[in-house]
TrEMBL record, chains A, B:
CDD domains: WHTH_GntR (cd07377)
Source species of the chain: Nonomuraea pusilla
SUPFAM superfamilies: GntR ligand-binding domain-like, Winged helix' DNA-binding domain
Protein name: DNA-binding transcriptional regulator, FadR family
Keywords on record: DNA-binding, Transcription, Transcription regulation
MF-aspect GO terms: DNA binding; DNA-binding transcription factor activity
Domain HTH gntR-type per the UniProt entry, residue ranges: 17-87
PANTHER family: GLUCONATE OPERON TRANSCRIPTIONAL REPRESSOR, TRANSCRIPTIONAL REGULATOR, GNTR FAMILY
Length: 241, 241
DNA sequence: ATTGATTGGGCTAGTCTCAGACCATTGAGG
DNA sequence: CCTCAATGGTCTGAGACTAGCCCAATCAAT
């Protein structure tokens, strides 16, 4: 926490890896967050390369790697493309332990703290903002989508709900940061068995979050998100104890 | 806020620029945030290049650019190095308008919202954490440093105080995010004339933040940071109206 | 004055990445 | 059955970036 800590913070690596690695990471984020749902396809290579600001060659290497790993099914010709084949693996505590071991305990705490801070911050900001009728509708829509979700779609729609809160603030930076925070723990969340008790509990908390936001109560919104995320974190740690 | 918005969020450019540009940006961040104070020097090129994960050639190009722009004074030989010569320009509303025009109004709102969310989130998390005696000391030290600051050092120590809150949470991700958020508005903050009234007002708010954190009251911490940052944001917008 | 450690300055060969052009495959619509 | 638009597959030359090496300058210690 002294000045040298701040040096480490700011003078950290400029790049997380080479273009290929960063591209794989980004595509994996899109897939695992369900931004591109199973069965859907990525944008055409030319368009995607332009969006990501990389060359088609590099993009194709990344797509090839994900194809080899079983995340994508690439088809040629018109109406072809890179189709998402990935579905979250069946939860099991064994795989959870393995993933945490790979990640490292400090990194897990870091990721959970990070997510707690940015999601609480987003909810608080949104609750302090006067919302349009359209914004309220989006939020309620996400909530009802989640309530009617099948077990298959639950995680994806849960992600959509949480990310919508950040998106509705209108801050792109905040939205990308929340997406990043979520993706850092998404594998772990997917490994938690989904019990009906937990889902019901989560549903009540989601409702409380929406209520607080719509009521324009930042403190209540903060508390509701905090409670929800700490519940999830506790569940996670419970399977590790 | 529909699904296409989420596509834009996740499938954004992988890289903000080439290695040279990103390195210049990072060094500028270290200088403008005062992580390397005026008169101090950057780490030796070899060490710095290793930390940033780039080659010495690229680093030297970036340093050269900052030297040409008057941010650094580079001296050879033992006890040489790249010394920071930059000091924040004298505030003036004219330069502020120009900078905002360059930045774009939407980007300004984005940056301010982002900063509000992450700093409130950090303070809330820290207040919810049981602090060690050492952590309390660090926080109090930063506060007293700021209270005794000369006009010359005020901005730098104000930055140090705010960043310490995120650092004390122990989350590297949160610390880097807060540093990033601050650097996005630092030029604008530096352009605001510093009136004694505002400094006194800010001092009281800083004290309120520390009180809430030490008292372990997340809601109060959130409110205190929110009030403080919205005061600054209002001041900023005031000079633009 | 000499020496030695530390630091910036510069060169080269090799790898990564890119832009752009062209080829191959697919399938809907005429 | 043909055609054509959309899409993935491939190649090439140029530029960006890197690792590693050696040179040049500076200054405290001797």
């Amino acid at each position: 926490m002294d000045d040298s800590a701040r040096l480490m913070t700011v003078l950290r690596p400029v790049r997380a890896g080479n273009a290929f690695e960063e591209t794989v990471e980004r595509l994996l984020q899109a897939i695992k967050l369900g931004v591109v749902a199973p069965g859907e396809k990525l944008p055409p290579e030319r368009e995607l390369a332009a969006r990501l600001g990389i060359s088609r060659v590099t993009l194709r290497e990344a797509i090839r790697a994900l194809q080899d790993s079983g995340y994508l099914d690439v088809r040629r010709g018109r109406y072809g493309g890179a189709f998402v084949t990935y579905t979250p693996p069946r939860p099991g505590t064994g795989s959870l332990r393995r993933m945490v071991a790979e990640m490292g305990g400090d990194d897990l705490d870091d990721a959970l703290t990070f997510r707690l801070a940015v999601e609480c911050g987003a909810a608080q900001v949104l609750a302090a903002t006067p919302l349009t009728a359209e914004q309220r509708q989006v939020l309620l829509r996400r909530l009802s989508d989640l309530e009617q979700a099948t077990l298959e779609d639950y995680r994806r729609l849960d992600t959509a709900f949480h990310l919508s809160i950040a998106e509705l603030t209108g801050s792109t930076l905040l939205a990308t940061t929340c997406a990043d925070a979520r993706s850092r723990v998404s594998d772990l969340l997917n490994a938690i068995p989904m019990l009906q008790v937990n889902i019901d509990h989560a549903a009540a908390q989601h409702q409380a979050i929406v209520d607080a936001v719509l009521a324009g109560d930042p403190d209540a919104a903060r508390r509701a998100v905090c409670e929800h995320l700490e519940g999830t974190a506790a569940l996670l740690r419970g399977f590790l104890a």
